Amino acid sequence: MEAVEAFGAVLRKRRLAAALTQEQFAFEANIRRNYVSMLELGQHQPTLSMLFTLAAALRCHPSDLLLEVEEWLAKAHRKERRTPIRPTRRRARATRRTPE
User: HTH cro/C1-type domain: from which residue to which, for each copy (predicted)?
Assistant: First the structure.
C-alpha cells in the first residue's frame, strides 16, 4: 500500500467517524465533493495547506492524520512480510509432472 492510498483510507475512516457525508465534509473544508472522493480513493495527494484544511474540517490536528497514515502503512508492511507466496494450483501441478 502506498502512502497516498493509506491517506485516503485514513481520511475516509475519520470522515465516517465524524458522521459526515462526502458532501458535508467538502462543505466544511470548502472544497468540491469529487475532490474528497479522489483523495479517499488515492487518486490525488493533498498539498500541505490542504492537509491543514482537511484536519480543521475533521476537528483534529494534521499530525494526527499523518500519524494514523504512518500506523496504517506499518500495519500493511507487517502484513505483507507475513504473507507467504504460495504457488497456484496450475504451478503446483506443473511442478509435479515428471518428464517422460
Answer: 11-65
